[in-house]
């Protein structure tokens, strides 16, 4: 294991862990094209983790940080900069030489390095050297700039990564003091300037300082007195400017903190936006923000004032010095102590002095600014009680076998009702224990202590004789499963969330070839360079061995069994029915002939519907020769679905091929007329209806805001003035309106049988002219599985009639039973695994989220399972759920937190807590 | 099967007699047109009522629960509205309706009907007038029945 060298005294365990994990392999399953090889090998933080880069606190000063991690590169940059300087100097001198020596010169031929040149060839040589130097100088500058930029970006990446790692190392109680709204800008925007500065950090002051010294030396050599005059303002500047700058630094600090608060306030307003609306507090929040913005303005204004005052002072001082030159120098010249030529040379040298001095001053201000930003960020990432780095990154897992024992444990969460004192208990290995107590009794704290999520203030929590404090996250997070009162569901699919608890480290490697391999090499090299993690995100991360299954299919099956056990399977099945799935792109489904089986159910269903008059009255199936009154006009006309799920059939008239088809078939005029009739009726019906009632938006084809626009279109359409015609966009809107018409629902009397017939006839033409030629559409075909339709629509292949009561529910029940009979329920439920749960699971109900979290925990197959406040009701259903959970945990330790004492009677052991103390610890012998 | 003939029927329903045509068209448009087969239930006594039925075509039996099972007490025919009590006040269905022939029915949901009343107070007035007439008649019937009973 690669962390071995930084871990103290864990060598033997490391070796053991490696032995355990050397069977790392990846299931075939979906990733047929991704070949995987065995032995994860040295998958870890780039090369070895350098002692000191991780274990200690962060560098408090920006310069120490820069020097520590980029000293070599900084010196290199300095060397290149120094190299550029003489080239630039020669480049400035050469034109003079060309004009004075080559063009206006005499005494030719000239001899250089024993070569003789006449005037023309001398000119050519000088000009060519000029060209070479131009190329060289600019090339070096380009190289240097890229090099600096790259160094800055790498250092920035390293800094950001380390900051994030530190966030992960914070202890849980620390998160009560900080908010994400403050942390996010620190890691993202606040350190951004640091990256731009790093490349300049050493080279610029070294070079400019050097130049300053050289120029000063020249002046001193001319006359020490004048030299003193030249630097006469430096002591004043050196004293006053830092004083002024210090105030600016303090202000910048204040500004950074203020902006952080603004970010936090905005973030909090977004999270609690429902509360803002529910309480009409938008004015309060706006004023609050306005106040913060004013503070920001004030600070900024103050900074400007001081910054520009410093600039003013500096310029003033610089121009004051020549005053001394003229006075002292003039006096010396008049007295005859100095030649006029020397005075002029000194004045010229002083002018050159101003450049470096200005640069240095700007640099000084930049350093002050960036350094304060760095410090203001870094100080937040060094809490005293941060977890040691080994806890986070070590990959050594020990097996937690044995009793769970708490010895005189005390803990304080920092508020009343969040503390426990002097808890001593023993939960024998493999038994189920209920921890009973209302909120604020210390129940949740005891369970979190048992999970190793928080650390006791006093006492020890041990499992099998091992103190949880000394164990790494690799052990705690894999050997213990914990579901707390507030579960978090990750943005992603249900599958992502189910298998989340198995994604500890990548299992196996992805085999890459050619360009992909080179790109991966580069990616790894960069990770090494910046001490980032070099784990391959595209590899398989699901630890099948930990879940106790052979391959991915078995893992899916296990997940499904658990979903059934917590009664979430029916929900996942329904989500699966609603999902779109392309069986040809999914190897597992292709193997199991999913598409063909769906088609078999479709056929059986259509037979059953045909033979059962009750069912046939509830549905209208797709039939190539028949108009479907329960479907929209667009579906009836095109008899196809767009392959792009974002494109609705009602908006396809904007596609060029569809427009051509409509024009050629002459349908556009007819559809436009229908759309116009619909618009007329809508305008007539809803003209006097107010917007508030919601009638318009629920029932109309158009929204309140669109109404005036359609009134305009209607006026134009009726107008006899040939010039005031409808635009193309207007026509398309009318056609779009017609497309939305579902004749059985909207009984507007705009469709007659002749029109229906015409539309059915147009289908064949559309199929031939558009669908056959374009990949934008897939034709309805009773014998073909359409990936663009939901699985449910593929099964029914028609519509439940809109004019029959509860037709949808009744036909769904029939579909459900037929799916069950054909053994398709499970594959469809698996399709539901790919359902996207929305941001933080927002598309699932609270109950679904909790159940999903329970399945996630159970799937980990951990030795100790801790559930807090899950299925704690006294009803029969919840009681059965608890029995099921006990059964699933069978043979492993289960800690179950609940508030009702009666719940505890069902478990082997019942521990009742009150105000952070154990009230009762009883064997139930259940 | 268009709004026009639905409006024709609506106009024959006493409850909507005084209401002008555009509003009846709107009422028809926001209602769902449903088809019921013979023997199919429109609603069941005791369940929560969320819509009224306007019978466009066909007839239905009105049944009530008795200790001996469901018993037919009346029937409703074309051009009548049933279940309107349920959409004006929250009471459970007072009877069961079963289609005795094939029926075409307009169902008006409670929410939409109330929105319509809010939107057009003259409809509310008309509904009030009809209900008041009914109440007056019921009161008169009750008085008559009482006087018979007193005799």
TrEMBL record, chain B:
Keywords: Ion channel, Ion transport, Ligand-gated ion channel, Membrane, Transmembrane, Transmembrane helix, Transport
Keyword Ribonucleoprotein in record: no
UniProt cross-references to InterPro entries, sorted A to Z: CNG_cation_channel, cNMP-bd_CS, cNMP-bd_dom, cNMP-bd_dom_sf, RmlC-like_jellyroll
PROSITE patterns tied to this protein: CNMP_BINDING_2, CNMP_BINDING_3
Membrane topology recorded in Swiss-Prot or TrEMBL: Multi-pass membrane protein
Protein localization: Membrane
Superkingdom of origin organism: Bacteria
Chief site of localization: membrane
Residue span, Cyclic nucleotide-binding domain: 15-134
Protein name: Cyclic nucleotide-binding domain-containing protein
Organism: Roseibium aestuarii
């Amino acid at each position: 294991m690669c962390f071995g060298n930084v871990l103290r005294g864990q060598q033997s365990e490391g070796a053991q862990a490696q032995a355990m994990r050397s069977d790392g392999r990846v299931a075939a399953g979906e990733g047929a094209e991704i070949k995987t090889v065995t032995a994860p090998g040295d998958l870890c933080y780039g090369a070895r983790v350098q002692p000191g880069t991780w274990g200690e606190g962060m560098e408090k000063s920006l310069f120490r940080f820069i020097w520590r991690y980029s000293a070599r590169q900084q010196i290199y940059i300095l060397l290149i900069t120094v190299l550029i300087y003489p080239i630039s100097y020669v480049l400035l001198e050469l034109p003079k030489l060309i004009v004075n020596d080559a063009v206006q010169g005499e005494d030719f031929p000239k001899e250089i390095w024993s070569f003789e040149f006449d005037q023309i060839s001398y000119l050519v040589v000088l000009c060519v050297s000029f060209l070479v130097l131009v190329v060289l100088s600019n090339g070096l500058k380009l190289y240097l700039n890229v090099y600096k930029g790259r160094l800055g970006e790498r250092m920035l990446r390293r800094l950001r990564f380390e900051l994030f790692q530190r966030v992960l190392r914070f202890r849980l109680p620390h998160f009560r003091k900080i908010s994400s709204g403050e942390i996010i800008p620190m890691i993202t925007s606040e350190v951004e300037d640091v990256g731009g500065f790093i490349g300049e950090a050493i080279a610029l002051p070294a070079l400019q300082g050097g130049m300053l010294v050289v120029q000063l030396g020249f002046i001193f050599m001319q006359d020490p007195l004048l030299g003193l005059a030249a630097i006469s303002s430096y002591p004043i500047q050196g004293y006053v400017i830092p004083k002024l700058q210090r105030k600016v630094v303090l202000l910048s600090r204040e500004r950074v903190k203020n902006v952080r608060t603004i970010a936090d306030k905005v973030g909090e307003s977004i999270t609690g936006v429902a509360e803002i609306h529910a309480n009409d507090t938008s004015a309060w929040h706006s004023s609050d923000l306005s106040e913060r913005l004013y503070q920001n303005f004030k600070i900024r204004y103050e900074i400007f004032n001081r910054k520009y005052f410093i600039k003013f002072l500096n310029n003033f001082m610089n121009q004051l010095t020549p005053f001394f030159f003229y006075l002292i120098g003039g006096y010396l010249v008049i007295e005859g102590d100095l030649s006029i030529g020397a005075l002029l040379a000194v004045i010229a040298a002083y002018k050159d002095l101003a450049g470096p001095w200005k640069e240095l001053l700007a640099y000084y201000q930049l350093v002050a600014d960036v350094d304060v930003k760095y410090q203001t960020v870094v100080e937040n990432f060094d809490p005293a009680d941060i977890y040691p780095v080994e806890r986070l990154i070590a990959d050594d897992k020990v097996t937690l076998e044995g009793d769970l024992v708490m010895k005189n444990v005390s803990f304080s969460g920092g508020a009343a009702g969040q503390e426990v004192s002097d808890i001593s208990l023993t939960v024998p290995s493999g038994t189920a224990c209920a921890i009973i107590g209302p909120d604020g009794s210390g129940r949740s704290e005891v369970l979190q202590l048992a999970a190793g999520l928080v650390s006791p203030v006093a006492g020890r929590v041990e499992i099998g004789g091992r103190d949880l404090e000394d164990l790494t996250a690799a052990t705690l997070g894999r050997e213990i499963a914990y579901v707390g009162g507030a579960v978090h569901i990750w943005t992603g699919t249900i599958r992502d969330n189910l298998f989340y608890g198995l994604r500890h480290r990548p299992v196996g490697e992805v085999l890459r070839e050619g360009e992909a391999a080179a790109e991966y090499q580069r990616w790894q090299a960069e990770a090494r360079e910046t001490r980032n993690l070099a784990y391959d995100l595209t590899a398989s991360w699901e630890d099948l061995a930990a879940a106790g299954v052979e391959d991915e299919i078995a893992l899916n099956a296990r997940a499904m069994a658990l979903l059934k056990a917590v009664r979430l399977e029916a929900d996942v099945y329904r989500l699966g029915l609603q999902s779109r799935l392309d069986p040809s792109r999914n190897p597992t489904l292709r193997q199991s002939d999913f598409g063909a089986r769906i088609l078999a159910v479709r056929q059986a269903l259509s037979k059953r519907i045909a033979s059962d008059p009750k069912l046939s009255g509830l549905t209208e199936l797709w039939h190539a020769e028949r108009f479907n009154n329960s479907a929209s006009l667009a579906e009836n006309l095109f008899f196809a679905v767009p392959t792009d799920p974002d494109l609705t059939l009602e908006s396809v008239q904007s596609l060029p091929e569809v427009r051509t088809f409509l024009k050629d078939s002459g349908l556009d005029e007819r559809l436009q007329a229908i759309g116009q009739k619909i618009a007329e009726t809508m305008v007539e019906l809803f003209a006097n209806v107010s917007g508030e009632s919601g009638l318009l938006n629920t029932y109309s084809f158009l929204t309140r805001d669109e109404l005036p626009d359609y009134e305009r279109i209607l006026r134009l359409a009726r107008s006899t003035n040939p010039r005031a015609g409808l635009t193309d966009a207007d026509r398309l809107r009318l056609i779009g309106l017609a497309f939305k018409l579902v004749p059985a629902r909207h009984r507007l009397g705009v469709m007659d049988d002749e029109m229906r017939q015409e539309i059915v006839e147009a289908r064949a033409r559309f199929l031939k002219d558009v669908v056959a030629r374009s990949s934008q559409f897939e034709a309805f075909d009773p014998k073909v599985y359409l990936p663009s339709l939901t699985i449910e629509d593929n099964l029914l292949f028609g519509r439940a009639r809109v004019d029959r009561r509860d037709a949808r529910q009744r036909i769904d029940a029939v579909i459900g039973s037929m799916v069950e009979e054909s053994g398709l329920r499970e594959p469809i439920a698996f399709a539901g695994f790919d359902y996207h749960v929305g941001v933080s699971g927002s598309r699932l109900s609270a109950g679904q989220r909790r159940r999903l979290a329970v399945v996630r925990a159970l799937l980990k197959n951990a030795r100790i399972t801790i559930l807090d406040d899950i299925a704690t009701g006294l009803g029969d259903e919840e009681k059965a759920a608890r029995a099921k959970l006990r059964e699933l945990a069978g043979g492993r330790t289960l800690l179950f937190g609940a508030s009702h004492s009666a719940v505890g009677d069902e478990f082997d052991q019942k521990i009742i807590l009150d105000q952070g103390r154990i009230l009762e610890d009883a064997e139930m012998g259940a | 099967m268009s709004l026009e003939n639905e409006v024709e029927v609506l106009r024959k329903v006493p409850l909507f007699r005084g209401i002008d045509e555009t509003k009846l068209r709107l009422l028809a448009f926001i209602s769902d047109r449903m088809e019921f087969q013979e023997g199919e239930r429109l609603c069941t006594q005791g369940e929560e009522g969320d819509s009224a039925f306007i019978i466009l075509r066909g007839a239905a039996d009105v049944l009530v629960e008795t200790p001996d099972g469901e018993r037919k007490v009346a029937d409703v025919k074309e051009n009548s509205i049933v279940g309107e009590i349920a959409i004006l006040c929250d009471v459970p269905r007072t009877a069961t309706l079963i289609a005795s022939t094939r029926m075409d029915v307009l169902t008006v949901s409670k929410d939409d009907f109330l929105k319509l009343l809010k939107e057009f107070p003259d409809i509310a007035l008309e509904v009030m007038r009809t209900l008041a007439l009914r109440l007056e008649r019921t009161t008169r019937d009750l008085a008559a029945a009482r006087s018979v009973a007193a005799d």
